[in-house]
Amino acid sequence: MINLENELFLPSIFLKYSGIGEATAVHLAELQPFLALTGRNEYNLAKVAKQCQEVGLPAERILLIKADLNIEEDIKRIMETTVKQFGRIDVLFPNAMIYAMTKAGLDNFTKSLAMELAKYKVRVNSVLPGLTKTAFQLRAGLTPYAYQKYLESQMEKQPLGRAVAPIDVAKAIKFMASDESSFITGELLYVDGGGHNKPV
Ligand SMILES: NC(=O)c1ccc[n+]([C@@H]2O[C@H](COP(=O)([O-])OP(=O)(O)OC[C@H]3O[C@@H](n4cnc5c(N)ncnc54)[C@H](OP(=O)(O)O)[C@@H]3O)[C@@H](O)[C@H]2O)c1
């Protein structure tokens, strides 16, 4: 028999929480870009594509590539398919790759890559979210009930008094991806309601 005791929040959690990548795709879609979306799950990809269309991005500007960023050939295929379809890549947002790095590693990687690529006029920046309401922790195995409790326990530790919403992160990524940040490279932009400045 399935024990539902700890699963009571399940429907609302899955409806309420979307990922950072998903929120960013929909937020950027309003700018009418050519958008290549990748992920391992075709259903989720189609769902995000539909949301992008709902905010006005034509279907022919959306390319869906089922791929796993842990597989080197898949990364190569993503790049090749996108260039073949759209002619070039202006902005790369490797959202899921953060999995594989420590924060210190990511910070150093951002700065050194920015210095290395500056001669090609390529900018490299990182957006660093604080605790963000997504399905991330649920996918990692936390029960919805435990996640809800964890969120509540963390709220009071956030200077601005709430968890990060995916759209908060999406707005920062839009800034970094656009000409609005045209002379910024090697920077780490925190989107955490001030959390990283709070004394421990
Ligand atoms: N949520 C937070 O509190 C938080 C805080 C700081 C940093 N971050 C970082 O922000 C990033 C996004 O987190 P999130 O909260 O939005 O997570 P999420 O809701 O679990 O979304 C992760 C996304 O990445 C895709 N993905 C995961 N592994 C992949 C792989 N190997 N290849 C291709 N696609 C893959 C997933 O799609 P498929 O399942 O379809 O592949 C999903 O769309 C992560 O790197 C996370 O470490 C999150």
From TrEMBL:
InterPro entries: NAD(P)-bd_dom_sf, SDR_fam. It comes from the Eukaryota. This is Uncharacterized protein. It comes from Sinanodonta woodiana. The lineage of its organism: Eukaryota, Metazoa, Spiralia, Lophotrochozoa, Mollusca.
